[in-house]
Amino acid sequence: MSTVLIGIVFISLTVFIYLFMTRLYHRFYIPFLIPALTSTVAVVFLLIIMEVSYDTYMIGGQWIDALLGPAIVALAYPLYNQRHLLLKNLYPILGGVVVGSLTGIFSGLLLAQSLGFNEKLLFSLLPKSVTTPVAMQIADGVGGLPALSVLFVMTAGFTGVVVGPYILYWFRLDSPLAKGMAFGSASHAIGTAKAIEYGDYTTSVSSVAMTLSAIACSVFGSLVVLVFYA
Amino acid sequence: MKVITIVLQIGFLYVFYITGSLLQRLFHLPIPGSIIGLFLLFIVLLLKVFPATWIETGSAFLLDYLSLLFVPATTGVMNYFDLFAGHTIWLFIITMISTLIVMIFSGHTSRLLARYREKRREGTECQQSLSESSL
């Protein structure tokens, strides 16, 4: 089979599964059915059954993946639309980002250390709350395993969007500001994709929180490693 | 017609992404190219170099399908299934717990700070009205 055909097959497969999962999600509206998660599970399941390797799948997958970069850039648009509201809440947002990234770094490190994991694994856990490319760079910088960090980043993303809505409800985080902060600082871009469901302001807060958390985590992460583990 | 607009505008967003990636490589920045591109576009929009309508349709389209765009990357997990076995599984459970802690802490911090600021603002308004009434 030619490469182009393989590409088209896997692009269509991914899009078809995604559209189906989106319909399913809108029908039942259970956080657990979030399309990014169910589509991933379905694609992985199909690839394993058909005995197709990830590299072969990515012949088509890379074309969808290539749109992720400009899509992150596109978050500037809701950001621009909401600029006045964001500026009004500058300090609450900054405060939430600082507290969020510090609790993320320390809770992960301390819990893992109490279970006796070695430093290489501890440091791979450190950037779990930030978006994948940043997380890989942070992990590399502090001496963790970037590939393992990617898995933690995914876990953090899906935990936030699946369990997050219940947490927001139980802990009375009902304002768009608090919701956006929670999604963006704990679950990066996957959380921001979920925040879109809650409207433009929540989306903007979430993308600001995600962006600032990425910066905060690269600064605090290296500092924490330097101070406590050097 | 709408398809052409979307394609052109995504192309335009791509320019920002490529510029961001170039800057990242050039200056060895710890922030990825896409986020630098986001900053660049935001600044350009603030400076009103071109109207927001130039990227409106393309952005809305990409953000509508943002979840889909993650799927190829997250599917990569299939290469690492062995990591979910044994002792390492605890690290994933820790990640889940820690993520929820971050949500609660960051959400409540910003909520409290926003409320504190509102109270202070109300306070100054009260004082103003008091001093006005005493006059």
Describe this structure in words.
The complex is a heterodimer of chains A (230) and B (135). Chain A is 82% helix and 0% strand. Chain A has 230 residues and is mainly α. Chain A has two domains: 3-66; 76-229, no CATH class. The mean pLDDT of chain A is 91. Chain B is an all-alpha fold. Chain B has helices spanning 2-27, 33-46, 53-64, 66-75, 89-134. In chain B, helix 1 packs across helix 2 (33-46) and helix 1 (2-27) crosses helix 3 (53-64). The longest helix of chain B is centred in the C-terminal third of the chain and has 46 residues, at 89-134. Chain B starts with a helix and ends with a helix. The relative contact order of chain B is 0.07. The mean pLDDT of chain B is 88. The interface between A and B is large, with 105 and 72 residues.
Quick rundown:
Chain A has helices at 3-28, 35-49, 54-65, 68-74, 76-81, 83-88, 90-114, 119-125, 132-142, 146-162, 164-170, 176-195, 200-229.
Question: Which structural traits does this protein have?
Answer:
heterodimer; A: 230 residues; mainly alpha; 2 domains; 13 helices; globular; B: 135 residues; 5 helices; flat
What radius of gyration of chain A results from the CA coordinates? 19 Å
How large a portion of the residues of chain A is in β-strands, by DSSP E?
under 5%
Order of helices and strands of chain A: HHHHHHHHHHHHH
Overall pLDDT of chain B, averaged?
88
Largest sheet of chain B: none
Kindly state the percentage of residues in helix of chain B.
over 70%
Summed up, the helix count of chain B is: 5
List low-confidence stretches of chain B. none
Low-confidence stretches of chain A: none
Largest interface: chains, residues each: A-B, 105 and 72 residues
Shape descriptor of chain A? globular
**How many domains, in number, for the residues of chain B?**
2
